[in-house]
Specification:
There is one protein chain. This protein is α/β, with parallel strands linked by helices and 573 residues long. It folds into two domains: 7-258, Rossmann fold (3-Layer(aba) Sandwich); 322-544, Nucleotidyltransferase, domain 5. It has 21 helices and 21 strands. An eight-stranded mixed beta sheet has the order 3-4-5-2-6-7-1-8, sandwiched between helices. Strands 10, 11, 12, 13, 14, 15 and 16 form a seven-stranded mixed beta sheet that branches. It starts with 6 loop residues before the first helix and ends in a 12-residue tail after the last helix.
Length: 573
């Protein structure tokens, strides 16, 4: 095993590099100069070191993770969220890269599953460079040349990357996606959220080349299911199959709480320093993660297949000003006279839907529709594309236990008021009737009846997920919506909806008698809206389907059909 080095010891050696780079070395602990911080991330780092001091800025479990990284060739850290391990490694990596070779310095290569994570890491590095050594580190951008060693004739591809160079001659490079090889490179490797990168097994194989040349590899991640390559690697190490130079370190959110993470937050944000406030804060965090808390916070891989979308990507896309409109009725509503049902639903649409529909502009819209009558929800999701091609959600409609005819009225009420749109509508079971009625009214070229199978999910998953990874989609900040998205699992490489249902949280308990269950309903509607919007909106309704279908009036007669008569012709066959 390697001789362990602490970040404090390395920091002392790194001041030589700071001096040669023109950085300040006379700044005492607790008095870090803040001028020159380029953005929020590096400012937060400097402020944290100012507040807690160089020796106190890291928790004990963060120091232990860093200590192990200087001992073992391969360190795998299974963690809960909000534990700040990547942040801590940014501090250690800065010290490593700023230190001369004779004192243990080296190059550092970071990679994660998204552009934003790479940017946050490199900005944290810049903050620690200033906080620890007074260096005003300049973050540069470059293209990392990546070649496939198994297919050299395919040529190279460019991966966007960020870089900080130090006077020691070493650098930190943060890649925005995982490369296929590290040919000709030496140093330390950091793989962030390894459970969510593409082909972790091959990436680890390529990274182990660093170990041959004296480097090391650290993989940090939350879990993403028991069958994920990340969890398999952990089991291999624990079984001794990777030798004595490989180690697993587990850090849960509970570990972080026991190590003072609440007290740190309370000091920074001015929260009450009481046991009651701490318990309420911990309860709040677990509540936010809901059914995913065991995997996301306690580092316990889910027994089902891994979640298709990580919680942090959902959280980044959430906007509090996007409404989720919920319409639900007790069982007896279905047996009220027609004119009473019709009047109630029409009044609800005019009160809640009409104002939102009037605000819509001419940007193209994707209409996604997942139908259910009783046990599950009917969900309508609208996605709108801005001129910069980012997506936003004007609103989402959820209907529980709403009769068929009233559901159709709500759908037509919405679609008649849209300008440029295309829709994908659930055609499974009773949804086939609604899909057919909407096709008759608005045209089959605008409304597609979808019976989603595994191939459909496999095709639609990657483009929608990339929207979340690139921060190019906005969704409601709603606990049930987030839970629906977390219910989507990866089975045989494709997004899939599991059979089990989850308890609803945000829905009105009075309207659902506390027994409401959800089956990823809003996630299904979102997938359909995404598929519709990517195909492009249609400007004009098919002339053959415009207006009434021409069918005779309902058997009730127009006089009895009330507000549904004439224009909507809901009862014509």
């Amino acid at each position: 095993m390697k001789k362990p080095k602490t970040i404090v010891a390395l920091a002392a050696a790194a001041t030589l590099a700071a001096a040669s780079a023109g950085g300040r070395t006379d700044l005492p602990d607790g008095a870090i100069e803040t001028a020159g911080s380029a953005n929020a991330i590096d400012r937060q780092v400097v402020e944290a070191v100012n507040l807690f001091g160089r020796d106190g800025v890291f928790h004990g479990y963060q120091r232990e993770a860093i200590r192990r990284s200087h001992i073992y060739d391969l360190l795998v850290i299974e963690k809960g969220r909000r534990t700040g391990l990547t942040w801590a490694f940014a501090g250690d990596d800065v010290v490593t890269a700023a230190t001369s070779r004779g004192e243990g310095g080296d190059d550092v290569f970071y990679m994660g599953p998204s552009h934003d994570m790479a940017r946050e890491y490199i900005d944290a590095c810049a903050g620690f460079a200033k906080a620890f050594m007074g260096i005003d580190a300049s973050v540069g951008e470059f293209l990392f040349k990546d070649e496939d060693p198994d297919n050299p004739e395919a040529g190279s591809r460019d991966i966007k990357a960020f870089r900080i160079d130090f006077a020691s001659g070493f650098s930190i490079q943060a890649l925005t996606s995982a490369p296929r090889s590290f040919r000709g490179r030496q140093g330390k490797v950091r793989i962030d959220e390894g459970a969510f990168v593409d082909n972790l097994k091959e990436l680890v194989k390529a990274a182990m080349a660093f170990v041959i040349l004296g480097g090391s590899v650290v993989i940090i991640s939350t879990h993403n299911g028991v069958d994920n390559e990340f969890n398999k690697l952990i089991q291999e190490i624990r079984a001794g199959e990777r030798g004595e130079e490989a180690n697993v370190y587990r850090v849960t959110f509970a570990n972080a709480v026991a190590d003072g993470i609440y007290e740190r937050e309370a000091t920074r944000r001015g929260l009450p320093m009481t046991e009651e406030a701490k318990a309420a804060w911990v309860k709040k965090i677990y509540g936010l993660y809901g059914d995913g808390a065991a995997e996301e916070l306690d580092a316990v891989p889910s027994k089902s297949s891994g979640s298709w979308l990580p919680y942090d990507l959902i959280e980044r896309a959430e906007r509090k000003d996007i409404p989720v409109l919920r319409l639900s009725y007790p069982n007896e509503f279905a047996f009220k006279p027609d004119h009473i049902r019709q009047a109630e639903v029409k009044a609800w649409c005019e009160e809640h839907l009409a104002p939102l529909l009037e605000k819509l502009n001419s940007w193209p819209i994707g209409y996604g529709d997942d139908f259910a009558r009783s046990s599950d929800l009917s969900v309508i999701w609208l996605l709108q594309e801005r001129p910069d091609r980012s997506w936003t959600t004007p609103f989402v409609v959820e209907m529980r236990n709403v009769p068929y005819r009233e559901q159709e009225f709500v759908r037509v009420f919405i679609l008649e008021r849209l300008r440029r749109w295309r829709g994908k509508v659930d055609a499974h079971g009773n949804g086939a009737y609604v899909a057919e009625r909407l096709q008759q009214r608005f045209g089959a070229s605008r409304v597609e009846a979808v019976k989603a199978r595994e191939d459909w999910w496999r095709d639609q998953g990657p483009p929608l997920r990339s929207r979340f990874e690139q921060d190019r989609i906005e969704i409601p900040a709603d606990s049930d919506t987030a839970s629906d998205l977390r219910q989507v699992k990866v089975v045989n490489g494709a997004p899939s909806i599991p059979a089990e249902r989850k308890a609803a949280k945000a829905e009105d308990p009075a309207g659902t008698a506390g027994k409401a269950k959800r089956h990823a309903d809003s996630a299904v509607a979102l997938f359909k809206a995404s598929a519709a919007l990517r195909e492009g909106a249609v400007g004009d309704v098919d002339s053959a389907s415009f207006g009434s279908t021409g069918a005779p009036s309902a058997y009730f007669g127009d006089d009895d059909a009330g507000d549904f008569a004439g224009a909507l012709n809901l009862y014509g066959y």
